[in-house]
Structure formats: C-alpha cells, structure tokens
Design goal:
Blueprint: H1 2-43, H2 64-67, H3 81-92
Amino acid sequence: MNELLNGIYLTLYLLVLCALLAGVLAVESRNLVTTEAIMSAETSSAVTPIEQRHYSAPAIRTFSEITERPLVSAGREPVKPAIAARVVTRGNV
C-alpha cells in the first residue's frame, strides 16, 4: 500500500513539475519574441550590411604529398593477434 501511495505522489509531483516547466517556457518564449520585435524596430536603421567572405577550397595539387602515396602497399601485413591484444588492453586502462 505504501508503494502505491509513493507512486501516486511521484506522479502528482511530476505532473506539477511539467506544468511549471511549461509555464516558464511559455513566459520566456513570449518575452523573447517581444524583445526581438522591439530590438528590430529600434535598430533597423542602424544595421549596415556586412561583406561576406566566401570560402574557396584549396586545389588538389596542394595535397600532392598525400595523393601521391599509395593507399595500399604490397608489403603491408595485418597486425599480429598478440600485438593487437596488447594495444587493446593498454587502450582500456
């Protein structure tokens, strides 16, 4: 019976908390909208357009050191299981 009462009280507390949070969010969102409207009306004449800089990617030849290397080399071998196990255990410590 005591567990049932605790569940009922917890439900009521959470319901009240949700209602309070919804009220706070409603008030704050209303204040945010009215503040933005006031600020935009006051500063509309004071705003000057800013020149935007556009990003241009570097040319591929800039990365020639990287692109000239092969992705896979003929002498490459997989890591030995013992070495891989040591690396994994060191990484977890």
